[in-house]
Design a protein that fits this description.
Helix content: 10-25%
Number of domains: 2
Number of helices: 7
CATH class of the largest domain: Alpha Beta
CATH topology of the largest domain: Quinone Oxidoreductase, Chain A, domain 1
Strand content: 25-35%
CATH superfamily of the largest domain: Medium-chain alcohol dehydrogenases, catalytic domain
CATH architecture of the largest domain: Alpha-Beta Complex
Distance between the termini: 12 Å
Order of helices and strands: EEEHEEEEEEHEHEHEEHEEHEHE
Length: 326
């Protein structure tokens, strides 16, 4: 690698994570309203793998090579014309979709980048999804909490959990679920969570879960279902667990339609964390520093081992975030 090139985790075509590679690419240059960031930490997320395996081809047909990576923390090394919000040397963190996924970003103030799973990436600055990183929040924690922490805050707002209510969390062993469970516990919820392995059951219990179930053994009569994993075909079985007048909140894209639940006597809501507003980077940082948000880190990889990180994430279903550091 030279001063003009960098390493990046790239897909050269649609395929399994094993077909990803580490490539030398030109260091991107920031244009007006953009900053170049030296990445200190980034993470792998479900969207990264669904995109490169072709799961979103109805939304976007990728141009290759494609560099994934949404969450990041790093330092500004260059600012483009017109940038006043950040300066060279600033430590920042946030959420930004690779530019080719613009169709799924905020239409008014999209947070886009050249892909965070790289040594360097260019980011737009006119977005609430990026912010200064507080000194008390280290880069790995900052990068790991953007999506899981922001989504947890958004879910709690949407679900309006009251103390004593019964809550079924489906997909509880993902990063969002593992961040959410302690927050639900602190809110006084009676928590039932899905788990497949003894290791997962043990961790969920330690985080505050009261009951664990298999994906086909949902309890009946619960007040709230929080869907963190199921696609459309799994929604009717999950909805049957709700009491009449219960609340079903999903974070799985695309947003579910009421008829997909198979019942019309429950409330349905969809939450999508865009990294801004009351669930954005600043709110996540404040909650983390106050001890209200924490996400387990299940594995750490150097960028040189980024392919192994992606395979680990896809095949071993880790209990927590996979962090990649240059």
């Amino acid at each position: 690698m030279t001063a003009e090139t960098m390493r990046a985790l790239v897909a050269t075509g649609y395929g399994a994570p094993e077909q990803l590679t580490i490539a030398d690419l030109p260091v991107p240059r920031p244009g007006p309203g953009q900053v170049l960031v030296k990445i200190a930490a980034s993470t792998l997320n479900p969207t990264d793998l669904r995109v490169v395996t072709g799961g979103f081809r109805d939304l976007v047909d990728l141009r290759f090579p494609y560099t994934p990576g949404n969450e990041f923390a790093g330092s500004v090394t260059e600012a483009g014309p017109g940038v006043t919000r950040f300066r060279v040397g600033d430590e920042i963190f946030g959420l930004a979709m690779p530019r080719q996924l613009r169709a799924a970003a905020d239409p008014s103030r999209p947070s886009l980048s050249t892909g965070a799973l790289a040594d360097y990436a260019v980011f737009e600055t006119d977005t609430p999804a990026l912010d200064h990183r507080p000194a008390g929040l280290d880069p790995e924690r900052a990068a790991s909490l953007v999506i899981a922490g922001g989504t947890t805050l958004a879910l709690m707002d949407a679900a309006k959990i009251r103390s004593g209510e019964s809550v079924l969390v489906i997909g509880a062993t993902g990063a969002v679920g593992l961040t959410l469970i302690p927050v639900l516990h602190a809110a006084g919820a009676e928590i039932t969570a899905t788990a497949r392995t003894p290791e997962a059951v043990e961790l969920l219990r330690a985080l505050g879960t009261h009951h664990t179930v298999a994906y086909d053994e949902y309890p009946a009569g619960v007040d709230v279902v929080l869907n963190l994993a199921l696609l459309a075909d799994g929604l009717p079985a999950a909805a049957r667990s709700l009491r009449p007048g219960g609340r079903f909140v999903s974070i799985v894209f695309p947003p579910p339609e009421p008829q997909q639940l198979g019942r019309d006597d429950v409330e349905l809501a969809f939450v999508m964390n865009g990294g801004g507003g009351s669930h954005g980077t600043r709110a996540v940082a404040e909650a983390a520093l106050a001890g209200r948000l924490s996400t387990p880190i299940a594995g750490r990889y150097s960028l040189d081992h980024g392919v192994a990180a992606a395979v680990h994430y896809a095949r071993r279903h880790p209990l927590g975030k996979i962090v990649v550091t240059p």
